[in-house]
Structure formats: structure tokens, C-alpha cells
Write a structure and sequence with these properties.
The chain is an all-alpha fold and 70 residues long. The protein is 59% helix and 0% strand. The chain is built from two helices and no strands. It has helices at residues 20-27, 29-61. It is rod-shaped. The N and C termini lie far apart (68 Å).
Length: 70
């Protein structure tokens, strides 16, 4: 936000006595919470995928080529 608002306007307050930074934080509070929830869910999904891949790699590493009977 600070890159888009000229320095002279950053401290101006509206009729509710809120600066542009205060309004930005207030308006984007729910968006921030949604982003945090999304990141947590993606971390869980990636962890599950990593465990599945590691399981397959571990099993493939200890599998004898040609099978057990040869």
C-alpha cells in the first residue's frame, strides 16, 4: 500500500479518523485469515503427498530386481 500512496497522503485521515493503512488492514482482515487457512491446508496436503512418495521410494529401494524367487 505504501508504494501506491504518495508520502504526503499517508497520514491523512478520513471522516472516521482512519488513515489509509488502517482502512487497508481493516478491509483485508478476512482475506488474510483465508490465506492463512489455505496455507495450512496446502501444507497438510503436501505433507501427505511427501509421505506417500517416500513410501513408494522406500519400497522400490528394497525390492530385489527380478523378484524374490530368482
Amino acid at each position: 500500500m505504501e508504494r501506491f500512496v504518495p508520502p504526503s497522503f499517508r497520514e491523512y485521515q478520513n471522516s472516521d479518523e482512519k488513515t489509509s493503512k488502517m482502512l487497508f488492514i481493516e478491509e483485508h482482515r478476512e482475506l488474510k485469515a483465508q490465506g492463512e487457512r489455505w496455507m495450512k491446508s496446502m501444507a497438510n496436503v503436501c505433507s501427505i503427498a511427501t509421505v506417500l512418495i517416500a513410501t513408494v521410494v522406500f519400497a522400490a529401494a528394497f525390492t530385489v530386481p527380478g523378484g524374490v524367487s530368482s
